[in-house]
Amino acid sequence: MPEQRCYDLRVEYQRAPIGVGVHQPCFSWLATGVLDAFEVAVDRGDGRPAWRSGRVAGDLPAVEYAGGPLDSNQVYRWQVRAWLDGAGEPSEWAASTFETGLLGPADWHAAWIGPKQEPTAMERWTLVDWITGRRPATPVEERLRPVQLLRQRFQVQAEVTRARLYATAHGIYTAQVNGQDAGDEVLAPGFDSYRHRVSVQCYDVTDLLTAGENELGFALADGWWAGRIGISGSSAQFGAETSATWQLHLDHADGRTELVCSGSDVESATGPWAYADLFVGEHFDRRVEPTGWTPVALTGENTAMLRPFTGEPVRRILELPALHVTGDAETGWIVDFGQVLAGRIRLTVREPRSGQVVTLSHTETLQPDGTWFDNIKGINKEQTDVYVAAGLPGSETYEPVFTFHGFRYTRIHGLPSAPALDDVVAVVLGSDLEWTGSFETSDPRLDRLHRNVVWSQRANFLSVPTDCPQRERAGWTGDIQVFAPAATNNAQVVPFLSRWLTNLRADQLPDGRVPIMSPYSPYDAESAAAATGIGAIVAAAGWSDAIALVPWTLYERTGDRRVLEENLDAMLAWVDAPQPGSGFGDWLTPSTLEGRPIHEAIGIAPALTGALVAPMFQARTLTVTALAARALGRYTLADQLERRADGVRAEFAAAHVSADGRLPVDLQGPYALALAFGMIPGPLRAAAAARLAALVEARGHRLDTGFLSVPYLLDALWDNGYPELARRVLWQSEMPSWLYEVDRGATTIWESWDAIAPDGTVRAGSLNHYAFGCVDDWLYRRVAGIQPTSPGYRTAVIEPDLAIGVDSVRAHVGTPYGRLAVAWHRAGDTAEIQVTVPPGITATAWKVPLVPGENTVSVTLPIH
């Protein structure tokens, strides 16, 4: 009999983390058998016990700390053992460690400090300015300011056994100890709703210290705090001046802890960065040395809103080689990396001349003839980096530090000859998620579609879930609401999305309304208050509902009740808030855009569908909130919410559903949503489904669903008797369709279905929006057949669509119990399905029970 054991121990989803910022961390692990009971023991670093769970019966390999208060900045050792497969004796103890961060405001002793600087000019641009392309009178580089350098010298007199640096900024920063990077994350501290919370990073810098004099060095740029962000590219949306704060904890061999805190002894200067902006790019002159160090000022800013960073930081997660180079020195060398991505270039300049200026421009696509095309038009969104060489012997290498871009192609000016392929590398940036799923088939087009989704998720899960990595980079709530189910299949996203939901809750308005994006800046609020029409929308159906739908999705896929506990009050506040008007409706419905200028067309779908979408999402969110309340044991509340949802559905049916099951707006989207959300009375569902099928047929099996309804179309057809029609929509190759993009060479998911026309004409717009990639969840559930039937995949059904039109599929998802995998192959009228079931999951395939481990099921088609 194999050894029974626990393994892959984690705290807050991470292995042996430092800087854990929650008072009651969750411990989780995997086990070699079915879990009957477990025991967890937690000890302080000196061996004193902190908590003993005792034997706990349960089948979920996770438990929340329930001992006394944890100390800040401390090392803890924890162990787990389990009773598995009905065994009378437990397994051996498995052990790991974690470290706490600074858990409370009283732990922060450092001051906010600010270098001498000219405040960022507050440039305010409207949605109309962006659409019309109105430009400022002066070049953007003349309106930017230099990066600030900070330094603090300190002495280390005794042996240091452990050193932790806690740091953050209003702006983005890099931290060094004695000239070496404190950590490998970039763009710290990340994007937060800075009015309410600012994340603090924790770095292990023990090995960077030396006896005697040491130096902390920081570089500080505008970032999301003061730089140009959002759809308008307006600056100083949170603040006009940057600042930083840090404290270094030195644990000595004699038991003492010493603090080195930011304060009046810090000096500042400018250096090689003439400017750095997230949108515009950065200008780096390697010849410039910092001079004129001057004392900083104590800014007196509030430290009570500092919070330990949670989740995964932004890092350099991949590198892509250049595939080929075209162009010339005059027009610019165009480098193709073969993949649209979010990141930046690392360029090696051979035999550089002192003062040689090299510029790096970025775009996601080229003109049909291969010439340069700026696919993102907008204010302050140049996406251009400038490097000035120092003339060092041999070569110089440059990679931007304080910016990132959305691109596939880079145009290089300033090199007399074409760069060697090895001299240009695309450095992919993103929040460093653990990728837990995979999907591949015998059809290369479906495989490319799935990879496009993954690449869009990778590019837009960057500090916060964004809409696109080049034009807006905003945390639109609607985008993640429709994409969250697909996201959970591909990666472990609970820490990442939980951090974002913390920002969203902080941004929730006093009357319960949930903003359409988060982080939501003071400028966003001012802009909406001064605008009319679409620009005045603060909360919207389908967008604001993310406060309920995203946590529920996370709970369904992981079984983590904490996401419900953390968000239930915010859900309740939203369902009791003043309901929005028409909002965005079923945004970007294709037929409403065809043949019209975009500034005229974008308002049509909201006007047509808004009155239908609002009550549908109200009913759906009431239902989900009721489910969340019931999962948390609040049964009376759940009953009340269910009655309210029933009332909304009854009112909707009375007002909008005709006696023959028709809706007043004859578009695919409203029918798909109405069927998915139970808005059609039972006797009329068949008629409504028939009407949806007729609308799909009338469009030649092409999509005519908008932003909110795309995730539901294929299931609405499948679940209501039209599976073959759903398959035809998936396989459609004419625009608008998923495979139209694939056939046009897409390597990510486009914002608009017609971003590249059938004749090759390219329109300005984002080629990297994950929202329409929501179909990836359907691929996992229907094509691979992996369907959770209870939270956390505790129970699951494996029923792949063997008639989808491919010969084979391989896929897996990560679950709290381990890897759940499916591989099926079809030959003629028979198919063989191999399923790997981790211990603890009860799964069936066409009602045939599966056992833990490897299973093989053979079926004859068709299956009845």
From TrEMBL:
Domain Alpha-L-rhamnosidase six-hairpin glycosidase residue range list: 436-783
Keywords for this protein: Hydrolase
Gene Ontology BP, a term: carbohydrate metabolic process
Record's keyword annotation contains Amino-acid biosynthesis: no
Ranges for domain Alpha-L-rhamnosidase C-terminal: 785-845
Signal peptide residues on this chain, from the entry's feature table: none
Domain spans labelled Alpha-L-rhamnosidase concanavalin-like: 331-429
Domain of life where this protein originates: Bacteria
EC number: 3.2.1.40
Stretches assigned to the Bacterial alpha-L-rhamnosidase N-terminal domain: 159-298
Pfam family, one: Bac_rhamnosid_N
SUPFAM superfamilies: Six-hairpin glycosidases
InterPro entries, alphabetized: 6-hairpin_glycosidase_sf, 6hp_glycosidase-like_sf, Alpha_rhamnosid, Bac_rhamnosid6H, Bac_rhamnosid_C, Bac_rhamnosid_N, Ig-like_fold, Rhamnosid_concanavalin
Catalytic activity field: Hydrolysis of terminal non-reducing alpha-L-rhamnose residues in alpha-L-rhamnosides
A GO MF term: alpha-L-rhamnosidase activity
UniProt protein name: alpha-L-rhamnosidase
